[in-house]
Amino acid sequence: MRICLELLCAELNFLFFFSRKVDWRMLPLLGVLNSLSLIDRSNLGLARAAGMDHDLHLSKGARYSIISCIFFIPQLPSNLFLRKIGAVHYISALVISWGAVQLAMGFVPSWGYLALCRTLLGAFEAGFFPAMVFIITTWYTRHEVQTRLAAFYIVGICVGGFSAIFAYILTLLGGRLGISGWAWIFIIEGVITIVFGIAAWFYLPSFPDQNTFLTPRETAVILERVEQDRGDSVPDILRIGKIFGHLVDWKVWAIGLMYMCATMPAYAISMFVTIILRGMGWSVSASLLLSAPPYIFAALSIMAFAWISDKYRLRAASIAIQTVITIVGLCLTGFASNQNWRYVGIFLSNAGSGGCIPGILAYSANNVVSHSKRAVTTAITVSFGGMGGIMASLIFRQQDSPRYLPGIYATLGCQVLLLLLLGLTTLSYWTKNHALRSGAAKEPLEGQAGFFYTL
């Protein structure tokens, strides 16, 4: 008996040690790369507030909306070929490429060249986030994944929150070498992105069965845990017919729409928060500095909800609560007469929408089996997130500043749609689980014996 207990304790210690080993190897670097992605796509608003608007005449017509919108090009289905391309080389090349484009944005002479750079930036960033989510979800069991996705995401939230302060510091370089303060934001942040892209080439992990930093025993345990949890530790053979079979599942598209609804307020805040704060009467420097606290609050909220969701296996309930928080925050920012309450609304809407993003990704990842369907659903879901960015950049129009009420109304409507789609998909999952438990189902869910949907 004593020997068995000692062996059990040794095995638990082993599991704890190498799971932390995977976490520390994967999450910090991916989190930093994600934060650089978020900063590089959203620092347009910071540069605009710091003088780019005047130098490039972005206030004329819909120039700023066009430049904001053009970033969100359709997502290429690179996830389907990620294993063959080579995940590490592909992702590192993307990071280095968009870092070079970001650097070039510091030297654009007109808004047309800025639009071209934003197009290239969007093209290179398009494959990054779905690839990251795809890789992370292959390493962990279903009820470990949201905490990891949240940890990966909140690094970006925290760093992104302080990016406004960092941008303000960079604007103080204005005049050095004859370069404007807003241009230094793009130049320095582009150089930083390139450096981390090079580091990723040497340090970034790949898929579990292709990793080189774990021992064979540790790799075997990882694969066995995933196999026992959902039966897809080994990638399935990719066929065209199989891909079309995944695409006709209506829940894949419903979750994509949910993700679009969640990203709309998140993108709107990242692109327009400094402008909204300016509309409240704050100076440029104060607006940049006050942009940071809502992101710190959001990071704490996101991790708390992720931990609860993983521990109690309450994906849908967690998403619903955070969506309601987003609605309350949007109402305060859009309709409150007191400026302090409007600022509180930014805290709530940023935390709620930011928390829904990893929540929906985990909800989606938990309810699919096979690498091929995971690749398809991740690509579609994140593509819809890009549509959320397009909508945010178009409905928050220059002429509606500083309250952006048409944008607020549209975003509120999308949050209601999110709740309706969440209820519909959860009811479908519950019905199928119940049919399987009662013996009414004729075949296993997702073709995997013993599999139940996560609610």
UniProtKB/TrEMBL annotation:
The protein here is known as Major facilitator superfamily domain-containing protein
List localization entries: Membrane
Q: Which UniProt keywords apply?
A: Membrane, Transmembrane, Transmembrane helix, Transport
Question: From which source organism is this entry?
Answer: Crepidotus variabilis
Q: Which domain of life is it from?
A: Eukaryota
Q: Does the keyword Transport apply?
A: yes
Residues spanning the membrane: 94-114, 120-140, 152-170, 182-204, 252-276, 282-307, 319-337, 343-363, 375-396, 408-430
Q: In the UniProt record, which is one GO cellular component term?
A: membrane
| InterPro entries in UniProt | MFS (IPR011701), MFS_trans_sf (IPR036259)
Query: What's an example of a GO molecular-function annotation for this chain?
Result: transmembrane transporter activity
According to Swiss-Prot or TrEMBL, what is its membrane topology?
Multi-pass membrane protein
| Major subcellular location class | membrane
Q: What PANTHER family does this protein map onto?
A: MAJOR FACILITATOR SUPERFAMILY (MFS) PROFILE DOMAIN-CONTAINING PROTEIN, PERMEASE-RELATED
* Transmembrane found in the keyword field: yes
